[in-house]
């Protein structure tokens, strides 16, 4: 008589216990890696937007973009960086685009649809300790109330 082949219930339970133990070890690492990726995306987005704001200001100072009377030289809206501005020195009125697209804050809620609405805005007239929106966009910051892996709140990046 041939004996039945297969795994016993005890063997299956041991394998299942080992797999669940490995999964419980791996999950925090996966979550940490996901958070680290979002933080890197936040750094990259802030660097990209701030670089475009600085370039806009340099273009205004060089006379390539018209400065409104009494203006600081920074754009009035964040969307302007992707929409483009008219080159004041070009006879054909060509546009200068500073960003291909405006990046979203990776920590912003998915309910917020516009990329510009995901960022907190600081005007040139507001102090760095209390950033407030105003007539222009001097800087951006994350509206997230979270804290980074480095211990610094995302708002202060």
Describe this protein's structure.
With 157 residues, this protein is mainly alpha-helical. The protein has one domain. The chain has two helices and four strands; from the N terminus they run ααββββ. It has helices at residues 9-61, 80-83, and strands at residues 85-86, 95-96, 119-122, 139-142. The chain has a two-stranded antiparallel ribbon with strand order 1-2. It has a two-stranded antiparallel ribbon with strand order 3-4. A hairpin with an 8-residue loop joins strand 1 and strand 2.
Provide the descriptors you would attach to this structure in a database record.
mainly alpha, two-stranded antiparallel sheet, 36% helix, single chain, 157 residues, 4 strands, 2 helices
Short synopsis of the structure:
This protein has 157 residues and is mainly alpha-helical.
